[in-house]
Amino acid sequence: MKKNNRIGALVDEFTSNPCRLYDSKYFCEKYDIAKSSLSEDIKLVNEVFKENGTGHIESSSGVGGGIKYIPGISAKRLNRLQEELCAMLEDSSRLLGGGFLYTSDIMFDGRIVDGMARVFASRFHDLGANYVVTIETKGIPLAARTAALLNLPLVVIRREAMYAEGSTVSINYFSGSSDRIQKMSIAKRAVSQGSKAIVIDDFMRGGGSLKGVIEILGEFDIKVEAIGVAMVSREPEKKKVAEYLPIVYIDEIDEERHVILARKNASLTED
Amino acid sequence: MKKNNRIGALVDEFTSNPCRLYDSKYFCEKYDIAKSSLSEDIKLVNEVFKENGTGHIESSSGVGGGIKYIPGISAKRLNRLQEELCAMLEDSSRLLGGGFLYTSDIMFDGRIVDGMARVFASRFHDLGANYVVTIETKGIPLAARTAALLNLPLVVIRREAMYAEGSTVSINYFSGSSDRIQKMSIAKRAVSQGSKAIVIDDFMRGGGSLKGVIEILGEFDIKVEAIGVAMVSREPEKKKVAEYLPIVYIDEIDEERHVILARKNASLTED
């Protein structure tokens, strides 16, 4: 195989298998090349990802070492994504009354979801997590994409215990946005004791349901290593969870004046 | 930019934006190359995708023409995926009683979901569909991935009308597996009159809920162009929907003998 084709094939292989650890032997045998040629190729592929702003290659030697593609997003593209999100959110036709906004179109848009998932994957890839966890329904595509980019399984917490989930553990929690006690359930066989999770959700107001997620995972001694949320409401200022990473903030929903104010999480592009 | 880097950059761009139509001008300007060099590059990139079994490039000239990456899956990889799925399904620890199987781990595995989504994307990309539709919850990652590969928005039909969906249209339908009347709802603003849909779901027994999906989409004069289902039960033989594309069949669930029999849809690799 010629070098041109090899570079193309490597980029295709890495982007199809993000966060998968490859032994360099695998590529040397596949393309019948020496380790030194592979190193040159990998260096070039890394340049390509950096130039395109789509991630980078991590190489480590020794036992347990190898080559891995870590998906990412450039500051420029992230900035554009945040501006696009804010503009979409500020469209007053999203107002549903009661402080609710219609956001399904945003959370079900594959390009926007991929951009947000790249933010979470690039920041959470080295936390040693065992799964990406979300609570149904609207955050599932974002959580699934984040899980795929991190090469981790997805766990979906259900609102109701479903028969096809087998035996489940359930908790009740107080949801501030619906102002009532709600329930969430997790399939026992979806998780194992003492593991680590990354939690992804579409929206946070007071943080009640995310606090519930931490609590239900606590039933299995699962530690939440990070929380990523697409949109976080400024109000109430005091959240029930301490640390979380938003893509954008919703500062104000003024139903009388038909105005929504959204703002990017500027700290993301300041890193 | 050198040719090596350009090939890598093109592969990265195409795989990040499946089914997006590019004007050849876009690349000529981006890489500052002549149309003839681009043609050579695209030919090489197409070879890479074909060799890796990950898809192909479609080029068309004239008004509305351009260059597009269509994701795919090689017969070899598809065959392996089907065998893996069958082996996973035949694990008797999945038996939940009442003819139910635990399948969440399969439907929430990013690599398996990507493989199945590639089957649907490669077969349904030229149907002129406007969205990919699914009914919550377990099929959402598969439908979301299929939608992303087809560059189409996802529409999720809910079991209950949620406040944050705005005004909805609901229907009642008979679900054979739960042996009762169930409800499904779709947000009015998620769809438009007279459009076309591809429907994706995780599992079909009698086809009651898929018939419901066709009916609720019919309320908007939306035509279902194709149905893709991950797993289809052999029983009952008579389904409520006529045409559908399964990845694998579940032939038998024998609770007494603790045996599950799964079989690949052989027609997929015979094309």
Provide key terms for this protein.
about 270 residues, two-stranded antiparallel sheet, six-stranded mixed sheet, homodimer, 9 helices
Describe this protein's structure.
Chain A is an alpha/beta fold and 271 residues long. In chain A, 37% of the residues lie in helices and 29% in strands. Chain A has nine helices and twelve strands. Chain A has helices spanning 3-16, 24-31, 35-52, 75-89, 104-107, 110-124, 140-150, 208-218, 267-270, and strands at residues 55-60, 66-71, 95-97, 100-101, 131-135, 154-157, 168-175, 180-187, 196-204, 223-233, 245-254, 259-264. Chain A has a six-stranded mixed beta sheet with strand order 6-5-9-10-11-12, with helices on both faces. Chain A has a two-stranded antiparallel ribbon with strand order 1-2. In chain A, strand 3 and strand 4 (100-101) form a beta hairpin. In chain A, helix 1 (3-16) packs across helix 3. The model of chain A has no long low-confidence stretch (mean pLDDT 95). Chains A and B meet through helix 1, helix 3, strand 4, helix 6 and helix 7 of A and helix 1, helix 3, strand 4, helix 6 and helix 7 of B.
